[in-house]
Amino acid sequence: MKRFVYINDDSSPISFCDNRVSNRKYTVLNFLPKNLWEQFSRFMNQYFLLIACLQLWPLITPVNPASTWGPLIFIFAVSATKEAWDDYNRYLSDKKANEKKIWVVKEGIRKHIEAQDIHVGNIIWLRENDEVPCDLVLLGTSDPQGICFVQTAALDGETDLKTRLIPSACVGLASEQLYKMKGVIECPNPDKDIRRFDANMRLFPPFLDNDLCPLTIKNTLLQSCHLRNTEWACGVAVYTGNETKLGMSKGIPEPKLTAVDAMIDKLTGAIFLFQLVVVIVLGFAGNIWKDTEARKQWYVKYPPEGPWYELLIIPLRFELLCSIMIPISIKVSLDLVKSLYAKFIDWDEEMFDHDTNTPSHAANTAISEDLGQVEYILTDKTGTLTENRMVFRRCCISGILYGSASGDALRDAELLNAISNNVPDVIRFLTIMAICNTVIPIKSNSGAISYKAQSQDEDALVNAAAQLHMVLISKSSNIIEVNFSSTALQYVLLDILEFTSDRKRMSVIVKDCQNGKIILLCKGADEAILPHACAGQQMRTYIDAVEQYAQLGLRTLCLGWRQLEDDDYNEWSHMFKEASSSVTDREWKLAEICQKIEHNLEILGVTAIEDRLQDGVPETIEILRRAGINFWMLTGDKQDTAIQIALSCNFISSEPRGQLLFLNGKNEGEVFRSLDRILRTMKLTSSEPKEVAFVVDGVSLEIILKNYKESFAELATLSRTAICCRVTPSQKAQLVELFKSCDYRTLAVGDGGNDVRMIQQADIGVGISGREGLQAARAADYSIGKFRFLKRLILVHGRYSYNRTAFLSQYSFYKSLLICFIQILLSLSSFSLFSGVSGTSLFNSVSLMAYNVFYTSIPVLTCVFDKDLSEKTVMQNPQILVYCQAGRLLNPSTFAGWFGRSVYHAMVVFLITAHAYADEKSEIEQLSMVALSGCIWLQAFVVALEMNSFTVLQLLAIWGNFGAFYVINSLASAVPSFGMYTIMFRLFRQPSYWITVILILGIGMGPVLAIKYFRYTYRSSTINILQQQERSGGPVYAMGLGSLESQLKSSETDMTPLSITQLKNRNSVFEPLLSDSPTATRRSVGSSAFDYLQAAQGRLSSSHSRNLKNN
Amino acid sequence: MEMEGGSSLGSGGAVQPISFPSWRQRVFYKFTQQNLSACKPALSPTLVITLFLLMGIAFVPVGLICLRASENVEEFVVRYDIECIPENYRGNKVAYIKDETISKRCTLSIKMLNHMKAPIYVYYELDNYYQNHRRYVKSRSDKQLLHGLQLNDISSCLPVESHNGLPVVPCGLIAWSFFNDTFTFHRKALNLSVNRKNISWKSDRDHKFGKDVYPFNFQNDTLVGGGKLDPSIPLNEQEDLIVWMRVAALPKFRKLYGIIEEDLDADELLTVHLMNNYNTYSFGGKKNLVLTTSNWLGGKNSFLGISYIATGCCSILASILFALIHVKNPRPQREPSCSVWSRKSSSR
Question: Which residues in chain B have Cβ-Cβ distances shorter than 8 Å to A340?
Answer without folding.
Answer: none
